[in-house]
Amino acid sequence: MIDSPSPEPAESSVVYLDPSRPIVERVRDLLARLTLSEKIGQMRNSAQAIPRLNIPAYDYWGEALHGVARNGRATVFPQAIGMAATWDPVLIQKIASAVSDEARAKFHETLRRKGSTAIYQGLTMWSPNVNIFRDPRWGRGQETWGEDPFLTGEMGAAYVLGLQGDHPKYLKTAACAKHFAVHSGPEKLRHSFNAKVSPRDLHATYLPAFKKLVTEANVEAVMGAYNRTNDEPCCASELLLVKTLRGDWAFQGHVVSDCGALTDIHAGHHVTNDVVESAALALRAGCDLSCICTYDHLGEAIERGLITEADIDRSLARTFATRFKLGMFDPPEDVPYAAIPLSVVGCAEHRQLAYEAAVKSIVLLKNSGNTLPISEQAQKILLVGPNAASIDVLLGNYYGLNDSLTTFMQGIVTRVPEGVGLGYRPGCPLTQESELKDWSLSESQTADVTIACMGLSPLLEGEEGDASMSDDQGDRTQITLPPVQIEYVRKLVQGGAKVVLVLTGGSPIALGELEDIVQAIVYAWYPGQEGGKALADVLFGGAIPSGKLPLTFPKSLEQLPPFEDYDMTGRTYRYATEEPLFPFGFGLSYTRFSYSDLTLDTSTVRAGEPIPLRFTLTNTGSSDADEVSQIYLTDLDASTVVPLHSLIGFQRVHLKPGEHTVIPFTITPEMMALVNDAGDRVLEPGEFRVTVGGCSPGERGVQLGAPVPVSQIFTVTE
After folding, report:
1. Are residues 333 and 400 in the same domain?
2. Residues 489/514, Cβ–Cβ less than 8 Å
3. Pick the catalytic residue: 147, 154, 187, 258?
4. Is 461 noted as a catalytic residue in this protein?
5. How many of the other CB atoms lie within 10 Å of CB of 117?
6. pLDDT score, position 8
């Protein structure tokens, strides 16, 4: 192979350095200047420097799941699943814009100080995670936007738009939709697992959010998953990468492998014989960048005749195009984002966004006897639980660091008025068993309220190798609270304590008898740096809870299919028939809302025509508050298996006491279409039911206190 640089042209003809030229021309010019070894050095996440062209080393591996992560100081927003519980795409886009501001500021400051950047310091952010959270045992479900493809698509798209910005020429950062596709555990099997999925489930559940991010939000990158899907390694899948992503969806950005996933092709999946074949297979399928070193063997793949240099050029053109869009080859004064000052990192405005998100994410699951907000007449409050003073439960996983991390205890201490007795005891450990002999059990008997901060921790659930106290390499083998916590709360109640149960976690928790015996239940997720302040304000009435569950909380594992089964039958609110503990979309408030006057413009339409509708939402309580109105569609005459209900729209609305508003909405033909057994989206004639309310349809939500929904039936004709 010839491996010598082309002669350097005069400066006036350096096309790749000319910001006025189209990116395709600049990329072509740059590629023509590179030797083969230099090209191969750009094919991994840690792209090598090219000194003779003054191109510094660059690492594509950046994380921004809920703030700039693994790169020192940053604003820490609620974990993604908590942000999903806000059901507020406008807020999510603002948050992502703040995240990308911080990433830009940190990137340019590092360049100024060091002349180069390293891992986690770049502008290519491997977020958001839009996998479907199909099973509560999956430890990484906390990284997702929940179990519903529509909600995931709406929230994930908002995050992408905020990360990438709205400049006509430059990306602020490059977002990445991951992990493509059909990926949601088990963690311990991810390097060898074959996710078997029907064409119907693939296109009705697992792909829609990715499609939205690619075709509507124009996400710049897509990350392939570790596993196989229907026998093909996802990072070398003809179906996923060639036919669907670049074919049907016309994706123009670049594809990156998950870290080490190309090694899995031969070592875990045994699809190829060695690393050289794996590299060639993935490159030919359109995986443009390898996270970790597999693509170092591309030269050997050329020597074996498995690929050509043109295959490398095709992928390099895509990754270099991303760097050009980020302005990395342009003078800083030409790139507006290069002027973002370091002072934005952790600034007051971003802290306020983190607080707003934490407040809106909190879900009130039970409030017997209006226990919350805590009465101003309370004279003694006891704070207990292993998570009351925990920093870990603020952070979740893939987090940044901040010098202002407000624990639940700190937030409550700040909020409690002088003169009110406030005590704190850990009460019980997070998970391991111990004999419970603790003063808090007797102290709680004389307290007006006992706030018990229990639940999960990122030590118990997360990614393989990350959750150090997990029994199953990051996943959960049980979905209840740890037994020691159950025993402790039970003893508090048996002693006469009036318990407000505050739960942390990134996934559903089956509560069993605890749901019946405590006075109130608040789910706080992993709420970020302002979590303590947000929780205290909700508990004491300074803020009204308005979060809604982006997940179904099952009553027990017995309600779930096997973890390894990717068939959607019996999973999520869309296909499960058993009564849940808490339904998808559920969340109480300190006020009451009612739905009425659902009116459709017509009760019969021809296929292909939309149906406008409107309904009235009224605040019938006594507090200013937000409500998330949700619109669901049910196909009553489908020729194949379809969801029991499908979320097709939602809107967060703020109303004063007694105030009402009329909310318009249009059901489009696309919303009426079903996915048939072949995976095709088709619109069939027949009857449909539209349901509007503050929770997914079903008796359980109303039993728990959700507003009574309203519904209408309409007919689609040929």
Report:
1. no
2. yes
3. 258
4. yes
5. 20
6. 54
